[in-house]
Amino acid sequence: MRAIRFVLGLVLAASVPALGQTRYQLDQKQAQLNEQSRALDEVSKTFGQYVILRDQVLNGTDGFYVQSRQWFTDSAQWLSEWTPLVSALEGQTLANGDDAARVTASLNKQLSALKDLLSRQEQIIGRAQTTIRQFQSLQRADTQKLGAFAASGENFNAQVNQVQGELTKSVILFSTQLGGSLQDIATRLDRLLVLKLQKLALDFPQLVTSLKEVESTLLSIRLVDAEVSRLVALDLKVLEAFNKGRVYAAQSLFVQLEGSAKQLESKLAAESLLAAGAKQNGVTRIQSIVSKRKAELESGLALLTRKQRFTSYYRSEVISPVTGMVRRCRAPVIPKNIDCALLRSIVFPEPQIAAMTEDQQAYIEATLDRVKEGPISSIDRIQGEGR
């Protein structure tokens, strides 16, 4: 009996460490599950915020897409309403002071509507930039904590980034089209309106004030509003590149933005026909665009360095098992929009990318841009680089 008890004691004693190890493993597993549960809760919360931004702030009645389409519809309507006014300015129909008074009232109405259009386009772009920042601030899924749900987390991140990227590109396009549209307005009204007003003002002095306001407004549109719209488009390209993680492209574009802003300021200063108030308004808007972008870039780099941001971009674009181009290039059907041969020359482990200098990372980033152009012949590439 004593022998049996002794042996049983040895067995139990030997099993204690094993039992402790099992309990430790269970505790670790539970801790991982708890962390995964918290990460899933964060994704669920962020997804709710994302849906509100997408469906209400972005695509709702006051969202960018609806408002920008409405702006171009209204601007086209506004242009069409000049046709009867220009017809009324023909000498044979503008016969007396009453006719001149009606024309003056119509001119004032059109100029007031124009000011409203210009104000609305600034508001549309301003709200869109706020929406872009809201998308940027959405907390992305931490795939390392999601365990078996990591792929779903990466897909969610890719979806948010795609919507944010499409919005940024749309705002850039809106700003670019806006600049062209405003220039078109100024050019068409110059030809149709100013020459007629100059002639009619000789016979109807009450049109002189309207003539001066029209000329001043058109000059301001051409030299200030249209040019600032183009500057806004370049500014948004800086934002787009930085948000994507193309930090070296963002840096280069910001240098271009500063240069363009200085050129435009000099152009306004040298323009003798532009009123002092319009000049100051233009300079203030220009400086505001540059200083605001500079502050936001500095703020972003204070949170994550340029190298850290690029490393994250590289991971997502190149080596991610869900969204990376390496995975796509290994598919049975090679994608037409990726130069897989060129891509192979810049595939490195993430730690090696993180350890590179900024100049080395900038080279990798520029090469990635070429990779996304798709496969082209070496001759085409050499000719492209030579242009």
In short:
The chain has 387 residues and is mainly alpha-helical.
List keywords for this structure.
single chain; 387 residues; mainly alpha; disordered N terminus; disordered C terminus
Please provide a written account of the structure.
With 387 residues, the chain is mostly helical. Helix content is 81%, strand content 0%. The longest helix has 57 residues, at 2-58. The protein is elongated and about 100 Å long. Mean pLDDT is 75; it is low at 1-20 and 377-387.
- The fraction of residues assigned to DSSP E strands is under 5%
Number of H/I helices? 14
Structural class of the secondary elements? mainly alpha
Indicate the mean pLDDT.
75
Topology as H/E string? HHHHHHHHHHHHHH
Rounded Rg:
31 Å
Distance between the termini: 97 Å
The coarse overall form would be elongated
Question: Could you give a short account of the major beta sheet?
Answer: none
Helix content bin: over 70%
Ranges where pLDDT stays below 50 over 5 or more residues in a row are 1-20, 377-387
Characterize the quaternary organization of these chains. Answer: single chain
Total E-strand runs: 0
Number of domains in the coordinates? 3
